[in-house]
Specification:
Layout (H helix, E strand, L loop, with lengths): L3 H11 L8 E3 L1 H7 L3 E5 L9 H10 L3 H5 L2 E4 L3 H13 L3 E5 L5 H9 L3 E4 L4 H15 L2 E2 L6 H17 L5 E5 L4 H13 L4 E7 L4 H8 L22 H10 L2 E5 L1 H15 L5 H11 L10 E5 L6 H14 L3 E9 L4 H11 L3 E8 L9 E9 L3 H13 L5 E4 L5
Parallel strand pairs: 2-10, 3-4, 3-6, 4-5, 7-8, 7-10, 8-9
Antiparallel strand pairs: 1-2, 11-13, 11-14, 12-13
Helix pairs in contact: 1-8, 3-5, 3-8, 5-6, 8-9, 9-11, 12-13, 12-14
């Protein structure tokens, strides 16, 4: 089993290889949570996540015969990059099996580190089954994403750094997929700061640990899913589950909507880019899934490898929900000056026009009218309601295409 001594050994092995990422207090998130909040910024780690830690330790401890046959791994993205980078540094051949729908940004980054990427399976578990079969066929060593003592020890160095850098830590909140990070962090934090609480956070749609703890045994989910692809796993690891049962104080869940709003908040208020999994711990604090603690709470931002297309959708939906991105359908008379008059009302309300288009073929609109599609920037939800009221006051039967309730 992984213990504090094993984590200290892993830290020695990683010295000069990985970054000792900043542990920074956040005035903004402290105010929003109502208790002291620090951020452990593993999104700034090499390869963009904490995964390089466990992968490097595991690969460095391979014997000469194992090294000669290379390594195989399965991953939705971050473990893939960690293994690819660790294998490249050791001069080993790496083959990574990733789900067919894996983020293209993560696929390209993994290939950029020199690994061969195979896209197979609909999810992590199917990709893992193929990777294990490939390892058996070729004799390569399978580098598990979470359920191996060396990997757990490597991830535990995150907790070691937290406990050393913030001796007064009262709580560490950790995103949980297969459990490698939360297991290692729990061993380190409980070993050095026994009074500190360790809380794991899962996505609502992929809460295998929550189900397993409730059942008292390993439970496999049928079809897990979440925008936080880095923590979508069907079944906990056997090693990690034992540690979580023994050392982790609580397990909670957050919704995809809460994760998305936290990604947006991190960008806008914290100037921090995180992926879905990386936002989960902070989301739990911000949305009251974890009770504030009088001693400082640390949220681990586990990764920043977010697909730009996903980020664009999150930003658009987040702005719409906040009333700052308003999409409208407005039927107007099909005659000269009609569009100008409509936009004049928008201008009076000091809303900014992002885009405007029209459709003469919409079957819902009478033949003497045209459907105008407007995308507007507004200050907040109150401003958005003001724009809607002004348009209706001028006789426009406006319909909203996205955003929160009008009243």
């Amino acid at each position: 089993m992984t213990d504090l001594a094993a984590i200290r050994d892993a830290a020695a092995l990683l010295r000069g290889v990985v970054h000792r990422t900043p542990l920074t207090p956040s005035a903004t998130f402290t105010r929003l949570v109502g208790a002291p909040v620090h951020l452990k910024t593993e999104n700034l780690q090499r390869s963009g996540s904490f995964k390089i830690r466990g992968a490097y330790v595991r690969i460095q401890r391979l014997g000469a015969a194992e090294r000669g046959k290379g390594v195989v791994a399965a991953s939705a993205g971050n473990h893939a990059q960690g293994v690819a980078l660790a294998a490249a540094s050791a001069g080993l051949k790496a083959t990574i099996v990733m789900p067919r729908h894996a983020s293209m940004a993560k696929v390209v980054a993994t290939e950029g580190y020199g690994a061969l990427v195979l896209l197979e399976g609909e999810n992590y578990d199917e990709a893992a089954a193929r990777a294990e079969a490939l390892a058996a066929e070729t004799g390569a060593t399978y580098i598990h994403a979470f359920d191996h003592p060396d990997v757990i020890a490597g991830q535990g160095t995150v907790g070691l750094e937290i406990a050393e850098d913030l001796p007064e830590v009262g709580m560490v909140v950790v995103p949980v997929g297969g459990g490698g990070l939360v297991s290692g962090v729990a061993v380190a934090v409980k070993g050095l700061r026994p009074a500190a609480r360790v809380v794991g956070v899962q996505a609502e749609g992929a809460a295998a640990f929550v189900a397993s703890r409730r059942a008292g045994e390993l439970v496999a989910l049928e079809t897990p899913g979440s925008i936080a692809d880095g923590i979508v796993v069907k079944r906990p690891g056997s090693l990690t589950f034992e540690i979580v049962q023994r050392l982790v104080d609580d397990l909670v869940t957050v919704s995809d909507e809460e994760i998305a709003s936290t990604i947006l908040l991190c960008l806008e208020r914290g100037k921090i880019l995180v992926e879905g999994a990386g936002a989960a711990a902070l989301a739990a604090l911000l949305h009251g899934r974890v009770k504030p603690h009088p001693a400082p709470a640390v949220a681990i931002l586990s990764g920043g490898n977010i697909d730009i297309n996903v980020l664009t959708r999150i930003l658009g939906k987040g702005l719409a929900k906040a009333g700052r991105y308003l999409q409208l359908e407005v039927p107007v008379m099909d005659r000269p000056g009609a569009l100008k008059a409509l936009l004049a009302v928008v201008a009076e309300q000091q809303a900014n026009v992002v885009s405007v288009s029209h459709d003469r073929l919409d079957p819902r609109v009478p033949v003497d009218r045209v459907e105008v599609y407007l995308t507007l920037e507004t200050r907040d939800a109150a401003h958005a309601r003001s724009v809607l009221k002004a348009l209706r006051r001028h006789g426009y039967p406006v319909r909203r295409r996205a955003g929160p309730a009008e009243d």
